[in-house]
Amino acid sequence: MLIREVMHPEPITVSPTTKLNEAYNIMEKEGIRHLPVMGNNKLVGIVTDRDLRLATSKLTKHPCEVETEIKEIMSHPVQTTNPSDPIEIATRTMRELKIGCLPVVEDIKLVGIVTGMDLLDALLMLTGVYLPSGRLDVRLLNKSGELARLTALLAERKINIHSILTYPDKEGKIRLVLRVGTIEMKMLAKIICNAGFEVVWPINIACVK
Amino acid sequence: MCKIIYHPKYKLYDLGEGHPFDPIRVEMMLDLLKELNYPVELETPDAVSPEILYSIHDELYVKTVEALSQGENYSEVEKYGLGTIDNPVAPGMAEGARYQTGGTLLAAKLLIEEKTKKVLQLGGGFHHAHKNLAAGFCIYNDLALAIKQMTDHGWHVAYIDIDVHHCDGVQEIFYSDGKVMTISLHESGEFLFPGTGWIHELGKGMGRSLKLNVPLDPFTEGDSYIEVMNGIIEPALKWFHPDVLVVMAGADAHYSDPLADLMLTTIDYENVFRKILNFADLYSNGKVIFTLGGGYSITATPRIWTILYLLLRNLEIPEKIPESWRHKWGKLVNNKFPEFMHDQLPAYEPIPRKPEIEKHNRDLIRRINDSVVQYWI
Fold first, then answer.
1. Disulfide-capable partner of A162 in A22, A102, A179, B366 (CB 3.0 to 4.6 Å)?
2. How far apart are CA B69 and CA B48, in angstroms?
3. pLDDT of residue B76
């Protein structure tokens, strides 16, 4: 999944001379939390609702006036991503720097913005249930051909696979969660168990000849 | 007096040899009532026409189902969820489904015309049928059609689904409808088909806070189940004040069900049915429709539905199952059909995680109530 598939194109921006209260009003009106700052058609900074609130808070030593210009408080240089970056790279950048968004830049041009919420949407897209389906949880040996052997069993029975998730487990095996188009999971689990796979869910499946 | 609806043509809805949704379950039940010498007076419904179904399903979907059922070939049936392992194309399935849908619709009409306050429809309950998708053994959503008939009459309908699977089709069709409350108790979608039915699914727009879902932990037992009914269904009905209850009485939350993992016994089922009847008396002026639904344990399902029938007709539940009947049907289950109407306790080994499961389900009651309290004013 690429950034261009999850980003918001044409983000709302402000200029370095926009006043703090104006920026705040834009965020309120649009229901957003991040504003890229553009100077001479280039991305020169970024400001978040938190920056605005902290800058003007009585809790800080030298609170700014609400008519201060954005350039006084904006963050720069700005961390960015590219539309053809995979989302996991952008996620890693955001996680490591503990930041909530990345402007998307291509050829020096701002083309979009991606936020933590967009990445949550992506996570839902990857893990979500979009068609009625049963859940099969299997621990696979970490070697080639195992997944193919398993999916062949499903294909033989004309059972459609709606989603596949995998992650490494602690024992060095591969945990595989399939969402498949059938309600009869226990019957399916038995077949899979009989073929020598370790079924985690449905549980208590005994292999039967 | 509770009216009973059935038509022999319900049996046309037969998805083939070895398919769990087997018409034999109702046949066994009717035969058991006969052996018990309880007279069964049946109201026979007409099949609905395909056109009637357009108020719930897409026209193209209905036409495809009808054509397939008559043996015509289509290449792209899988996008409609048909020709799959759960919903194979079976001759006569559309007609059978339309008869069963007619039965549920007749139940609604009998109530609207004040012919009775209680109806048991010995079929229907196709809660996984979507607007244009067959799923989970269901093709036409009889429940939705009957509910719509009643809301068109001006009624508020509370739909209670005790089938072990989430009622995704019914919920989706009425998700924004302010006249229909849906309450589904099911095994959590984390583990069981169809994967939906989470507590955050509360409805949209006018339907907000009217769709309630209780995703129970696997191995939930009867006591915890009843606690959830008291903690969620009762306050919901008290607040919503429905004109009628529609109950999808799937029997697959039974501990012996081969498709799911809840642990209700027949005794728990009797308690659940009594409680629902009590809710009907308290909150819907006694008006209630029961349909059948899932329930794939051949030894449990006919007993559970017979118990439901007897409760609705104020008849005594006999202790023993007649020998002649056991003999006749025993061959299906290696002559291991239980001797008694009720499961003998303890019916299964103690559940090791019982306290955790109860705690989890209690948490659900609290969380669901916390999420609707702002709407229920």
1. A179
2. 15
3. 81
